[in-house]
Protein 1
Amino acid sequence: MEMVIIMPVLLTLVLLLAQVTVWWHATHIAQATAAEALAATRAQGGTVAAGQDEAQQVLDQLGRGPLRGAHITVVRTADRAEVRVTGTASSVVPFLHLHVHSHAFGPVERFRPASDEFTTSGAAR
């Protein structure tokens, strides 16, 4: 009689542990994708298309198994770049769909010429 109660509980715990592991892995894939896409987008001369392309390449390299329905949003303004990756973790437990999201942002890299203060002062005249 005890086995009738203990075994379903034990199997449920194992499945939940497996689900959390898959969700965690999918979250790491989303974070890596967002970071790489941000680097391509915020670089001097980078574009939204370059960020989208980099995100697709990272997803292709890392595999899409744990991360289902990945949606990538890349925004670049004059001063800031932003990448959002959303999706759903693969389901191990029936009817349990855990959402995954990652957000990365940073300033856009710009070339700034040396000011006159740095070029005319100092020991290297």
Protein 2
Amino acid sequence: MLTAPATDFWRVTHYGFIRDNGHFLPQTVTGDFGAEVEVCGAYREQYDQAGLMLRVSAEVWLKCGVEFVDGRQHLSVVVTHGQSDWSVLPLATVPHSFRLQLARRGNTLDVRTALSDDRQAHGPFQMLRLGWLPLPETVQVGVMCASPDGQGFEVVFRGFRVTAGPPRP
């Protein structure tokens, strides 16, 4: 995918604006599930981002992945319930790609990631965030990407899959 400029998902917190025009390729899922994807992006501009999203509405969603912030890649999770919160973890090195897992168990969302090394082999999955959202039985889940400040960037998603019941940690 090539992201369009001025695209994002964000609600109110700190910046005071609402953006709900990022790229999202959803699949409808009922009940507990696990979703997984490999992501490889040519991040270059502030806030370029790509990963997975779970969405109920414009006011209730989670996005997770890698985001380019202050000149480097960060693991990033945003949980939105009326307003967005944001957690980031700077990466010491630039991975060739990364894998994401998102598991739903009731109203609990478990986000895990595995980074690739210079041989392009992925390490073990590690928990990035455990979060809560009020979720109906049926939600949407899929890949997402956006370029809030930049002119767009290229991102490749590989092996997206959704399975019934969450993966085991």
Protein 3
Amino acid sequence: MHTSHPRLAGELTFMVLLVLVSVFLLWTSYQISSLDSLAAPGSFPMVCAFAMLVTGLINAVKTARARLNLENGETRLQQFGRKVTPVQLIAFTVLIFLYMLGMEYIGFLLASYLFLAMSMYLLGSRRVLLNLTISLLVLVAIFVVFRTAFSVVLPAGSLVGPHLPGFLR
């Protein structure tokens, strides 16, 4: 027995994105080997992407038919913003973007240290000294494992790298 449920904030947006991703995956899997044969390299990915597209379309239609319950007299956009894109999520996304940029300029070590400390603060830990200490310990452990066990050279950064001691490069 299926019971209908009210549409959640962002649910229709997610379903539309799922359908668009399914179309993209179907197209890219088709480009692997067209429809040459059932044993072609792109056949299985095409079947999976097609199944994902069909089920995505079915769910998108069901979701579009469901009624959206607006709470506290909010508009659709206000409810979407409050439930789907809270400030903490946006801030963390910006932090990840800055971390990716920072790695190129200030290197893995400094960018990771700042990212770890700031993400702990952003996620609720207000004990700054503890955050800085844990970030340092985790980064030292990562550095030792990657440099000694895996022999991976971590990016030094274009601004900081030339000034680092040799063992940190």
Protein 4
Amino acid sequence: MSNTGILDKKQPHPLFKLATELGPLVIFFIANAKGNLFIATGAFMVAIVVAMIASYVVTRHVPMMALVTGIIVIVFGTLTLVLHDETFIKVKPTIIYGLFAVILGGGLLFGRSFIAVIFDQMFNLTPPGWRALTLRWALFFFAMAIVNEIVWRTQTTDFWVAFKAFGVIPLTMAFALTQMPLIKRYHLEPVSLAESEADAGDITR
């Protein structure tokens, strides 16, 4: 086995990663401001596909979160345009957050943490660290699903679009930063990279 292991995967520049994540949302916001939600939905779908293709071309890899999000955007975006009903694209974030919450929470029931898979990152934590981090993110995604439901049901479409474009990512980044003390507290240096890959997310020990 190669000593470089997961290091063989190309690591994109942080600005490139930010552009592929934030770019489609900015396009969604601008298209809604210049046109309407249906035009914005179509532009958002195209931007998501372009972002995934760019990610694959540059890194030969599409992160799991981006792939799942892209599929759901395409499905619910298509329903929005075909049925001409804004509800589908508005409820899409609720479905995504709820799905991630279920995946993480369900994984805990079977003694596994899927944080590394969802976020396309490698953590080396003790079993208590895996459990705590996974539970926190599951609760965060569950809370975000509730917030999305509240916002789109009680606020204007323009407000919801602005929140989706410029509120969700800062909230997620802020929450991720608050988890750094936990990650540092339970961090383990792997005996070998191969062992790290094999044990990632195992909380049964």
